[in-house]
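Study this protein:
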Amino acid sequence: MNQRLLCTFLLSIFLFIFGAMSLQAEDLSQDQIFKEKMALYKKNEALTQIPWYYLAAVDRYEKNTQKETASDKFISITIPEEKWFGIGNSIHDTNHTWISLFNGLGKDGNSDKIADPTNDEDILYSMASWIKQFGTTKQDIKIALWNYYQRDLSVQTIMNIAKVYKKIGTIALTKNDFPIPLHHNYSYKNTWGDARGFGGRRIHEGTDIFANYGVPVKATTYGVVELKGWNRYGGWRIGIRDINSNYHYFAHLNGYEDGIKVGDVVQPGDVIGYVGATGYGPPGTSGKFPPHLHYGMYKDNGYSEWSFDPFPYLKRWEREAKTRD
């Protein structure tokens, strides 16, 4: 009996220790994950002279566009096997010297002589080293990213994310905001997918938020102004690409906030324009419908971009804003 109790006790101790050693990213708080990631970015900046915010941006972009990643910890970058081990390397030996013989991207980032495609330090160091071979300037990095992804929107999105991280100085960016100040009168319902007739049969790719002329319109997320100007359908409009690879479309504006321009970094709550009723005609057309903000959201998965329903997000951001206020 005593032996059985002793065995049970020892087994419990073993399971406790094993469980503690097996903690993964999901067992950590969000703040701890941010700290772990930043430590990896800064380490690789020191090793390769590639600024941390570019490495963080690539990591974030891959998190946005991949369903599954090779690492089971923090880094979301997944380098395809053919690129990691090198063309013609059918053995897939993780010895870093062997991989280099086949011009593979895989490198040893933690000095264990192994280039493991599932190890965070090896993954990040391999990507940073790939970029470094093109140089360390902003233009060099853009060229490196184009050679890797071979897609203009991917490069533009990564550079925008890096711009946000550089300006704000952190990757811990989780706040959102409702686009209309809560103290103003406004109303909205789910209108995504409704039929529209102007310009031919089409669906409504957004949610209309009705408010008075001149009511401020705010950025809902961290991002970069990607587009600004007149559109026949949207009137005076502005587009913002966020750090989650989503494009936010604000249309029918009466005007823009002074000084705002393409390339600006915006944060949730920044005023970017004002409610109006512009559109459905040549530049300056206004008053063909009641004043409102058309708010649309589009997702890029690394291959294509499509519209999705912003209504649930607006409702959540409105609730969060009410809690803060």
